[in-house]
């Protein structure tokens, strides 16, 4: 198998942390999306969404979308971590908090960055007003994250999960938006706990 990625992107970072937690090592090919390498006809022919990360399977087929690739590896290499949950209720709670972090945190953060920085202005229309609105939505979400982490050690409860990985990636992305969480003690305590995980050392 081969993983096509750009290691510095949030989606690739989420997947790489997940793979590190699972102890999965895989060949990686860096794709320069800033230069538009993912926009070529050759790349679009193998990627259903034209984006990275993209997993090439041994049979020559492909999987895209970082969470779906995580799910594939979780099924392929089941372990005691159970990063998607270890019971029907746990899986539902992990999915719930993962989606909340994605919809209310990661996606608005990406929209804010793209529209305010204009990093992809050569291929999309940047709307600064939407960037500011998206940034405000991220800012409004952080107190909700703080409240949740005052209630539990991890987002979905007492066990670390992919929801925490997504939130960790979001927090790491905030400086690009001129934002920080140093005044939020519960997030800081959670960050210290997550940073202490051995898998995070190389991510």
Description of the structure:
The protein is an alpha+beta fold and 203 residues long. It folds into 2 domains: 2-76, Glutaredoxin (3-Layer(aba) Sandwich), CATH 3.40.30; 88-198, Glutathione S-transferase Yfyf (Class Pi), Chain A, domain 2 (Up-down Bundle). The chain contains 7 helices and 4 strands; from the N terminus they run E-H-E-H-E-E-H-H-H-H-H. The chain has helices at residues 10-22, 41-44, 66-76, 88-117, 128-151, 162-173, 185-195; strands spanning 2-5, 27-30, 54-56, 62-64. It has a 4-stranded mixed sheet, with helices on one face. Strand 3 and strand 4 form a beta hairpin. The model has no long low-confidence stretch (mean pLDDT 94).
Task: Supply the number of structural domains.
Answer: 2
In what range is the share of β-strand residues? 5-15%
**How many strands appear in the DSSP assignment?**
4
Assign the CATH topology of the largest domain. Answer: Glutathione S-transferase Yfyf (Class Pi), Chain A, domain 2
Radius of gyration: 17 Å
Biggest sheet, strands in spatial order? 2-1-3-4
**How would the global form be characterised?**
globular
Low-pLDDT stretches: none
Under the CATH scheme, the architecture of the largest domain is Up-down Bundle
Order of helices and strands: EHEHEEHHHHH
Oligomerization state of this entry? Answer: single chain
Roughly what is the average pLDDT, rounded to an integer?
94
Please tally the helical runs, counting DSSP H or I stretches of 4 or more residues.
7
**Which class of secondary structure composition applies to the elements?**
alpha+beta
The helix fraction, in percent, is: 40-55%
Largest sheet features: 4 strands, mixed
Domain GST N-terminal: 1-81
Pfam family, one: GST_C
Domain GST C-terminal: 87-203
Protein name: Glutathione S-transferase family protein
